[in-house]
Amino acid sequence: xxxxxxxxxxxxxxxxxxxxxxxxxxxxxxxxxxxxxxxxxxxxxxxxxxxxxxxxxxxxxxxxxxxxxxxxxxxxxxxxxxxxxxxxxxxxxxxxxxxxxxxxxxxxxxxxxxxxxxxxxxxxxxxxxxxxxxxxxxxxxxxxxxxxxxxxxxxxxxxxxxxxxxxxxxxxxxxxxxxxxxxxxxxxxxxxxxxxxxxxxxxxxxxxxxxxxxxxxxxxxxxxxxxxxxxxxxxxxxxxxxx
Length: 243
What we know:
Helix content: 25-40%
Low-confidence stretches: none
Oligomer: single chain
Strand order of the largest sheet: 5-4-1-6-10-7-11
């Protein structure tokens, strides 16, 4: 089973323009993501999918960057264009967000390993929430799964809602990494935005609304994503004192 890794990296973030080039401990964020991807074994290729020549120029000093259209509504769409342009031949395409500088190779391989089951179409990760405040934080996406570890729903709200405030309820945050069968990636990028997706601003709800299954594996590693300039301080602190 061949897999490739694509890293969508957009320059024009509303909250943090130029984010992939931000310096974290003497290394750009996008290079840290690249290094994590490169530590995986047996992949058939890695590339950064970008819309900006500054990112392309930087990435080409240590790896491969593929220019894509600016207008893509999501990283998934950007990955599809990059895959088509790359000439890579893979059964599984892994999408790693360019703002996750401390991901681990074992998380990537956990995604890939799920496709040993032939009925897996899309795979992603979850982690148990240990800070109660995160359950009500709309910037922390929550996920609930069925008994077969398939996603039932993703939400920015607290799910499931504990009607009697059961303190034993475990909430899970979604870790925003995906892997797709190549044929499924081609299909889902042709779908129109759905009602739930537009309501929650979560692209994975489009896939669920259209009947696709998302397998979810649990990870015990969580590191800070970088969404705003203020998050760089958290990232620097994490780098000096990883949990």
